[in-house]
Amino acid sequence: MKETSSLTAYVNNGFVPLEKAMVHIEDRGFQFADGVYEVVACFGGAYLDLQPHLQRLQRSCDAVNIPLPKPMSELEDLVQQAYAKNPFKDAMVYIQVTRGVAARSHVVQTTMTPTLVITVRNLPKPSDDKLKTGVKGITLQDIRWKHCEIKSIALLASVMGKQEAAKRGADEAFWLDEQGHVLEGCATNIFAVIDGVLVTHPLDHQVLGGITRDMAIQAAQNAGIEVQERAWKLDELGLTECLMSSTTNAVMPITAMNDAAVGRGIPGEMGLKLRALMLLKLDDLRAGVKSS
Ligand code: PDD
C-alpha cells in the first residue's frame, strides 16, 4: 500500500500534493452534488477505453449543462499527467467535474467556472479470491433519480444501497424497477445468462451505460454468444448465472442473491469465460499490445 503523502492530485489548473488538494466549501459539488464524474482504469500507462470514458464525461456534462472544463485533448493530457505523477503501475483515475463555486443558491449563475479534480489510486488486479465463490448480491427497490444514464456525483442512494448490502453480508446491491426487473448495481451493471443467452437491461434512463458493459457485450459477441438487451427478472425460467461488470471488477460472477443461490450457486461457465476474455485484454494492455 502506497503512502497517501506521495500522491498528487489535479485541482483547478494545477497539480498539488493530495493533502493540499482542496475545493471551496461553496463548490456546488459539495453543496448540491451538482457535478459528474468518471473512473478510468490504466494498466502500466495504457488506458482501458479512455476515449469512451471521456465521451461519456462529455455526455454527462452536456446532460446537466456544465461546460466541459477543458478541451478533450487537454483533458486527455491531464489524465496522462495525473497518472504519471502518481506511484501506481495499475491505477484508477477519477475525473470529477462540478459546476463550480458560487454563493449557495439553487439557481445557477450564468458565469461559472467548472471545478475539475483528477485523483489517482491504485487499481488492484481483479481479485481471484472472490472468484472461487463468486460475489453475493441483494436486491432493493430503486430509489434513485430518473436520470441514471448520467454519471452524476449524487450517489447517496448508491451509498445507502452498498451499506445495506454490507450490513447483510453481501458485496453489491442491485436495483429493481417497480415490476421487479433487475436494472443495475450501485456501482456495477448486471447480466443474466438465460437459456444460454447473455441478457442485460437495455440502455435507458434507469441504467448507466457502463464501458465495461459494452466491453463484455463485445467480448461475448466475438465469442459467438448471443446477447439480448431486454428487461429481465431473477425468477425467469432458464436463468443459470448472474454476472456484474464495472471498471474495477471486469466481470464477476454473482452466485447468491438475497441469500438464495443463483443457478448452482457457484461461478458459472459463461461468467468465467467472459472474465477470462476480459482479463486477457487487460493483460494485453499491460504488455503494450494494441487492441483491435
Ligand atoms: N461505477 N452502473 C453504475 C451505477 C456505476 O456507478 C458504474 C461504475 C457502472 C459500471 O460502469 P463502468 O463499466 O463504466 O465502470 C454501472 C464506478 C466504477 C464508480 O462509481 O466507482
How would you sum up this structure, described in words?
- By secondary structure, this protein is α+β, with helices and mostly antiparallel strands.
- It is 27% helix and 28% strand.
- The strands form two sheets. Strands 7, 8, 9, 10, 11, 12, 13, 14 and 15 form a nine-stranded mixed β-sheet that branches.
- Helix 6 (211-222) packs across helix 7 (269-286).
- The structure holds N-(5'-phosphopyridoxyl)-D-alanine.
Detail the topology: elements first, then pairings.
Layout (H helix, E strand, L loop, with lengths): L7 E4 L2 E4 L10 H5 L2 E9 L2 E2 L2 H15 L7 H13 L5 E9 L16 E8 L6 H5 L1 E7 L14 H12 L4 E5 L5 E4 L3 E6 L2 E4 L10 H12 L4 E3 L9 E8 L3 E8 L2 E2 L7 H18 L6
N-(5'-phosphopyridoxyl)-D-alanine binds next to helix 6 and strand 13.
Small molecules held by this entry: N-(5'-phosphopyridoxyl)-D-alanine
Described by the principal axes of the CA atoms, the overall outline is globular
CATH class assignment of the largest domain: Alpha Beta
**Largest β-sheet summary:** 9 strands, mixed
Radius of gyration: 19 Å
How many helices? The count is 7
Terminal-residue CA separation? 34 Å
Q: In total, how many domains does the architecture comprise?
A: 2
Question: What is the CATH superfamily classification of the largest domain?
Answer: D-amino Acid Aminotransferase, subunit A, domain 2
Helix content: 25-40%
- CATH architectural grouping of the largest domain: Alpha-Beta Barrel
Please name the CATH topology of the largest domain: D-amino Acid Aminotransferase, Chain A, domain 2
